Amino acid sequence: MPAVVPARAPATEFSAERAMEHIRAIAQEPHPVGSPENARVRAYIISQLEEMGLSPEVQQTTALIPGRGNVQASTVYNVMARIPGTKPSRAMLLDAHYDSMPMTPGASDCGSCVARLLETARALQADPPLQNDVILLFTDDEELGPMAGAAAFVEQHAWINEIGLVLGFEGIGRTGPSIMFETGPNSGIALSGVPQTKA
Ligand SMILES: [Zn+2]
C-alpha cells in the first residue's frame, strides 16, 4: 500500500490525512436512510462540495426495489456535483454511498468512500481542469435498499446517459490492500489506462 500522504502535502495531491478528517466528521453516529443523522451527513457533504466551489444538487425521489414477491419503496436523497471538463465527451462517474447500517457509525462502510471522493474532488479543483467532466455521486440507502439510491440514479436521472466510465468505491473489510472487484465488461481500461480490444 502507498504511504499515507500527510495533510501538509501540496493541494493538488490526494492526502489520506486530509481524507481522515471527513471520516471523523461523518462517522459520529449510525446514519441509516431516513434518519436525522443521515440528513446531517448529507448536509456535511453538501457544505464540503460548496466550499470547493462546486454546485451540488440533491435528487430526492422514491426508489423501488423488487424483492421476492414484493417491492420495497424507499425515499432517497442522492447528492451529486459535476466538475466540468475543458472539452467533454463522456463523463467519468465517481460513486460512493453515504448511508450506514443502523448499528454502526460506518467509518469504513462507507465514510471512507465518501472521504475518498471529497478529497479527490478537492485535489481536482486545485489542479487544471481535466478534459472530461467528472461527476461525483453520493448515493443514499445502499445498505437497506439495497442499493436503492444507486438504482434511483440509474433509472431516473438524466446524467446516466452521459457517462463513459464508472468508478464505484465500497468499504468491504477494514484492513489489507485496496483492490478492484465486481467489475463490468471491458473494465480492464480502469487498470491499464489502455482501451481493450473487443474479445
Ligand atoms: Zn457499503
Question: Could you explain how this protein is built, in words?
Answer:
- This protein is α/β, with parallel strands linked by helices and 199 residues long.
- It has a single domain (20-170), classed as 3-Layer(aba) Sandwich (Aminopeptidase), CATH 3.40.630.
- 30% of the residues lie in helices and 21% in strands.
- The protein contains five helices and five strands.
- The protein has helices spanning 16-26, 36-51, 107-126, 148-156, 189-192; strands at 57-66, 71-83, 91-97, 134-139, 163-168.
- A five-stranded mixed beta sheet has the order 1-2-4-3-5.
- The longest helix is centred in the middle third of the chain and has 20 residues, at 107-126.
- The protein is globular and about 50 Å long.
- Bound molecules: zinc ion.
Main features:
199 residues; Aminopeptidase; binds zinc ion; five-stranded mixed β-sheet; 5 helices; alpha/beta
- Structural shape: globular
Oligomeric grouping of the chains:
single chain
Q: Any idea what the radius of gyration is?
A: 17 Å
Query: What is the overall number of helices?
Result: 5
- Note the main sheet: 5 strands, mixed
Number of domains: 1
Which stretches of 5+ consecutive residues score pLDDT under 50?
none
Percent of residues in helices:
25-40%
Mean pLDDT: 92
